[in-house]
Structure formats: structure tokens, C-alpha cells
């Protein structure tokens, strides 16, 4: 389960930074937009990871993944697009000057 341990810090960082924006304006709207983006990125990840794995471009050693898969893709692969969908907008908000809100 090596890959799971690799993605956990990214997920924890994403959760912490996103929660840091909880009191900023339009939090609910931002979470909705991030949720939609996460779904779209998840679908694209499922499609393209499965195609690339099926084509033999790369593989995952069975002892390094959780064993939970979406098609051929291990579930750990979905952490990165999920984090991107929530972390990047949260960072954008935190880096904006307060008067711009």
C-alpha cells in the first residue's frame, strides 16, 4: 500500500487548506464548483488511466496499491485530480488580498 501512503499527505494538505477558507466569502459556491470539477476530472482520470494501463504504458505492482480499482486504475490515482479540484481554488482564495473578496 505504498501509493496510499504517498497520496495521504496531499489529501491532508488539501483538506487543511480548503478548511482554512471556510470563513471566506462564497465558500459554498466554491465547494460546489470544486465538486463539479472533481467529478469531471475523476471521469477523465478513469477513462485515460484505464486506456493507458490497458495499452501497457504502465502497471502498478499489486503489493503497492490498496487493491481497490476503478476498472484497471487503482483508486489511489484519483486522489491527485480530487486534490487539484479543491486545493487550487482554496489556494487562490487564500492568496488574494482581503479587499478583493
UniProtKB/TrEMBL annotation:
It is found in: Membrane. It is a multi-pass membrane protein. Keywords: Carotenoid biosynthesis, Isomerase, Membrane, Transmembrane, Transmembrane helix. GO terms for biological process: carotenoid biosynthetic process. Its main location: membrane. The keyword Isomerase applies. It holds the Pfam family Lycopene_cyc. The chain crosses the membrane at residues 6-23, 35-58, 78-95. Pathway: Carotenoid biosynthesis. The keyword Membrane applies. Residues 7-90 form the Lycopene cyclase domain. One of its GO terms (molecular function) is intramolecular lyase activity. GO terms for cellular component: membrane. This is Lycopene cyclase domain-containing protein. It comes from Microbacterium saccharophilum.
Amino acid at each position: 500500500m505504498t501509493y496510499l501512503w504517498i497520496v495521504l499527505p496531499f489529501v491532508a494538505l488539501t483538506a487543511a487548506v480548503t478548511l482554512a477558507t471556510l470563513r471566506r466569502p462564497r465558500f459554498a459556491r466554491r465547494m460546489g464548483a470544486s465538486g463539479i470539477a472533481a467529478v469531471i476530472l475523476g471521469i477523465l482520470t478513469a477513462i485515460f488511466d484505464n486506456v493507458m494501463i490497458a495499452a501497457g504504458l504502465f502497471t502498478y505492482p499489486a503489493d503497492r496499491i490498496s487493491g481497490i480499482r476503478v476498472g484497471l486504475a487503482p483508486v489511489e490515482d484519483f486522489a491527485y485530480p480530487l486534490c487539484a479540484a479543491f486545493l487550487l481554488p482554496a489556494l487562490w482564495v487564500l492568496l488574494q488580498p482581503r479587499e478583493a473578496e
